[in-house]
What we know:
Oligomer: heterodimer
Family (chain A): Belongs to the phenylacetyl-CoA ligase family.
InterPro entries (chain A): Adenylate-forming_Reductase, AMP-bd_C_sf, AMP-dep_Lig_C, AMP-dep_synth/lig_dom, ANL_N_sf, PA_CoA_ligase
Pfam families (chain A): AMP-binding (PF00501), AMP-binding_C_2 (PF14535)
Domain AMP-dependent synthetase/ligase (chain A): 81-284
CATH class of the largest domain in chain B: Alpha Beta
CATH superfamily of the largest domain in chain B: VC0802-like
Number of helices of chain B: 5
Organism (chain A): Desulfurella acetivorans
CATH topology of the largest domain in chain A: Rossmann fold
Helix content of chain B: 25-40%
Amino acid sequence: MIYKDEIETLPREALEALQFKRLQQTLERVYALVPFYKEAFRKANITPSDIKSLKDLHKLPFTTKEDLRDSYPYGMFSMPIDQVVRIHASSGTTGKPTVVGYSRIDIEEWSQLMARSFVACGITSKDIIQNAYGYGLFTGGLGAHYGAEKLGAAVIPISGGNTKKQIMIMVDFKSTVLTATPSYAQLLADTIEEMGLLDKINLRVGVFGAEPWSENMRQKLEEKLRINAMDIYGLSEIMGPGVAIECEAKEGLHIWEDAFIPEIIDPDTQEPLEDGQEGELVITTIKKQAMPLIRYRTKDITKIIKEPCKCGRTHRRIQKILGRSDDMIIIRGVNVFPSQIESVLMEIEGLAPHYQLIVDRQNNLDTLEVQVEVDSKIFSDEIRKLQGLQNQIQKDIKDILGITTKVTLVEPRTLQRSEGKAKRVIDKRKI
Amino acid sequence: MKSIKQISVFVENKPGRLLDVIEVLGGSDIDIKAISLADSSDFGIVRLICENPESAYKVINSSGFTASLTEVLAIAISDKPGSLAKVLRVLKESSINIEYMYGFSAKMKDHAVIIMKVSNLEETIKCCISNNVQILSENDIKSVV
């Protein structure tokens, strides 16, 4: 099924012409309205008129998460705040979030792309969508919500958590679609099984994203819940969920090329790579008003599949995300950088920055353990004081990053040291 | 100074770690007079009274453990019912808080020794002296324990 047949199956040539036209408009816009880009273009010795075709895209400077952080909160906006109708944010590396703004047209566009994405997953206006993505600053909840309404489906805005209630509603309301992070979907599936309610649910499609997940996990979710489990890709900086979506062929995710231009680069040399080669995904938004981004480095590792898809859509696909080019970890949908944990630890007097993060998945929920080495500066002969330190670290991380961690005190020099870059993260999750 | 030095050692709560500490001391011929182990769910603190605390501390520290020297009080009490209560009552009346304590038997006839870490060391010593509570010095420890 295709939602907007004409645009989704537009011949490549016409699609690329449309992309180029929108790229030019976007470049003019940011050059005139966003001081950051004016300066970045000047440094790169380029103006919008130097971009004469899509092939010139690589001449433009990159935008990074650090750039967004440096312009906190509104520095990247290309319109005055009175024309902005929505603000979302995602976690940043210093505790300050990365802020994104949307105009009324941006919200409409996002809703359209989400509706398109739902239809690509086989969802129709007759479906009852149980939206278990978190509602709030995180783009997942509201992004899926607006898309579901745009499509005309019935949306249940239950948000994340409250598992027993989720299941009661899923059974009683006869939900046919579940939107959630894959780890939460797995927790739901296991709990439904424990409660003996697998025969009582009416789910037929699951739309899972915001976290990396494997084919193996897909198979388990599909078998247990008897659904089609679909992968959705997005990031708040670019828009939110609905940047790319799997179609029923489940052979990669179509990236909506009428709104975004994807590129793959070598994360080390920053040189563009050919379609089919694995590297870091870079996205340029070409339809956004409030906060267009030029060549945004997503840090996600994938490749572009240019071969035509059997579904008939002409928009190229990206492979299921394979990993990240930085050390960011995603815990229950929250982005966490080791440097964020480090800065929390550094704030605590006397604490040596010898720490390690152990990521695991227990009972299908991501867990984060922070191991901190105890040296003579923080050591006390009283258990109470050391436990107080554990609690303080835990509380500070919770306050700043919003995630619950287990803090473990370990003996000095027990954590792995490596030459050069320290190995800060041990990910034991089997996804 | 009437207080004595205790060596406190941080150990992870896993098999063999206490043995490692003890073996390091044994390997340097250091006699352990008293030992206590305080534990939480994932770590513990070994508290040791040794004949020569400074050299014991050096040995432990150079073996890669996190350790500290802590001033504690060693108090001799007569080995009969009610004598510990008497000491505790004296401390209570001066509002002195005991952070932790442990006891062991001594070579002194009819006496036991308790080691305690208190909230106010100076005050506790004064209070003990004026109430005839017997405090043991490091030399006393060498001979009686």
